[in-house]
Structure formats: C-alpha cells, structure tokens
C-alpha cells in the first residue's frame, strides 16, 4: 500500500498530460504536423540537465522489441531531466512506432509496455522517484504479452526518432531436454512417471524500474508447490507443467516456465533462491529433483530479468524426499546456458 499519494499532481504538468484521459492514442488540443524522421539509437545510460521553453511538441519513438499485438498498450512517462525529475506528461499509446507529447527540452522518457493495469492506477505518479516504487504482480502478467520497460534521455522537439530498448521484467526457465536414464542402477529401464515440473520460491512481485538487486518482494510456492496460489494466476502455466512420464528417450518438446528476477546474493529463510523442481515417481515412490536456478553447482548469480535459462537435464538416480532439498551432481546431470531474451542479442553464456 502506497502512502501519502498526491492525487492532484496533474495540475502541475503540461496540458499534454491531460489530453489523453479518455483515449489511447496521442491527442493535442491543437494540430502539430506529422513529420517523418530517421531513427537514431539511444544510449539509455546518458545523463543530462533539463531545459524547457514551455512549448508543446511531438517526439517520435520506436519500441524494440515491439509488442506482438498492435492493440497492446504502452504507458509513456516523460519527466523533466533535472534534480527533481518531475512529471512533464503521461500518455497511453498503442503500436510500436508512436508519437508522444511533452514540452520541448531535454527529458527522461520511461516506456512501460503491457503494464496490465488501468490508467487511473498511475494517477499519483508525479515524479520519476514515485515511479520507482511501482511494481507488478506475476499473477497478472502474461508470457505472451509480458510487461516490458525502457528508458532514454530525449531532446523533445528535435527532429529525431528515438529507438527505445525494451526489456521484459520476467525471465524464462526452459528445459530444452529432459531424460530419465537409470543405467547401472537397480532402476535401469524404469521411467519417471506422474511428472510435475514447477518453480518454487518464486519472486512474484517486481518493480517496473530495475534497482540494485532483485530480492523477492512476494514469494509464491514457498518451499513447495502451492495449488491455491497457482490457481490465482491469470496464467497458471507460467509456474507448472505436467506430463505423464519421462523416459530415457526424453521429452518431445521444450518446457517453459516463467518468473521474476531473483539475484540477491545470500539465501535466507525469508529470501530463498528460486528452484526448478522435477517431481515424479519411480516404481511408485515419489521423488523430487530440485535445481537451484543459476546458483552453485549449476551456475551462479541467480535470475536476472529478460533472460532465458536453458537447461538440458538427465536424471540418473532417485531424488530427494523434499522439494526444497536441492539435488547433487550424482543424482542429475545438468548443462545449460543463459540466453539474452532480446532478439538482436545472440550471445550465450555457458555454465
């Protein structure tokens, strides 16, 4: 619950802020000619000082990667680029190449695609610092239309089209291959049956604007799978996948699960690391194969936003009796890589 929200701040921003309360497209009270400019890449780490003439203007922006649906919403906040970073304008737009309205001068632009919330929920935002406090719940997010954010310093009123790099808040945990091969044990030629694959200790809340680290703000599936919590999700399939069996031949298709970042350094009872759990039966006995995602001995650093954690897993032995007791290298063989989710990035990091 946010405290001390100021619901009258729109009186202090430019008229472009209030032109859009009933429309998703940008609208002015007067006409500005449409201009076509070439696009220039933007370094989102730029800093500067604000300057304003008080005149209203359009600025062209292109979002990368774009929304898969032209009807999907993107909320655009434009702040003064000075010490206070007060809100200059806000608008909801659709499409991947759009015009946004503000006063002229150097500005800090923040774009939030697929926020999964209505426009009224932003009414108390009157500065960049206020936006830093805003978060989204994983239960409302959608892997097909994921929440994404991007920032850039722009010169509003200049003849420039700015490319805004957009990063997903969520990350993908992908099991590329999964086999159960008990060769050389008493369970040789047995299958793993009644299989459920799910995430535990899931960070289910994420700030729109990335901070220093991503300690869990709200945890679901704490130590084990929670059916009640999962059923409250708009897309339960982000957390769990069920298959009849896993044999030595493997699974026919990759399995994809989704979560928010969890990259804090130390694991505590209140801030556990996120785990990928394979649950199944061998000769009727239930076993768990929890793998702590991108932590020792199967990686390091935890889960960052906008990444794909790609795993190839072979189960060699019976697992643990508890979904919160990680397996070791004797029970499973795990190889994997971290793949940036941005389509233009092809680099992989092998662990």
Topology:
Layout: E1 39-41, E2 56-64, E3 73-80, E4 87-94, E5 97-103, E6 105-113, H1 128-132, E7 135-137, E8 148-156, E9 161-165, E10 167-168, E11 171-180, E12 192-200, E13 202-203, E14 205-207, E15 219-220, H2 227-231, E16 240-246, E17 255-259, E18 275-282, E19 285-292, E20 307-315, E21 332-340, E22 349-350
Parallel strand pairs: 1-9, 2-9, 11-20
Antiparallel strand pairs: 2-5, 3-4, 3-6, 6-8, 7-14, 8-10, 11-17, 12-16, 12-18, 13-15, 18-19, 20-21, 21-22
What does this structure look like?
By secondary structure, the chain is mostly beta strands. Strand 18 and strand 19 form a beta hairpin. The chain has a 5-stranded antiparallel beta sheet, with no helix packed on it. A 5-stranded mixed beta sheet has the order 17-11-20-21-22, with no helix packed on it. Strands 1-9-2-5 form a 4-stranded mixed beta sheet, with no helix packed on it. The protein has helices at 128-132, 227-231, and strands spanning 39-41, 56-64, 73-80, 87-94, 97-103, 105-113, 135-137, 148-156, 161-165, 167-168, 171-180, 192-200, 202-203, 205-207, 219-220, 240-246, 255-259, 275-282, 285-292, 307-315, 332-340, 349-350.
Q: Uncertain runs with pLDDT below 50, 5 residues or more?
A: 1-52, 344-351
General shape: elongated
Strand content: 35-45%
> So how many helices?
2
**Strand pairing plus helix content: what structural class?**
mainly beta
Helix percentage range: under 10%
Radius of gyration over C-alpha positions, nearest whole angstrom: 23 Å
* Count of beta strands: 22
Topology pattern, helix = H, strand = E = EEEEEEHEEEEEEEEEHEEEEEEE
- Main beta-sheet strand count, sense and barrel state: 5 strands, antiparallel
Mean pLDDT: 84
The largest beta-sheet arranges its strands as 4-3-6-8-10
Distance between the termini: 40 Å
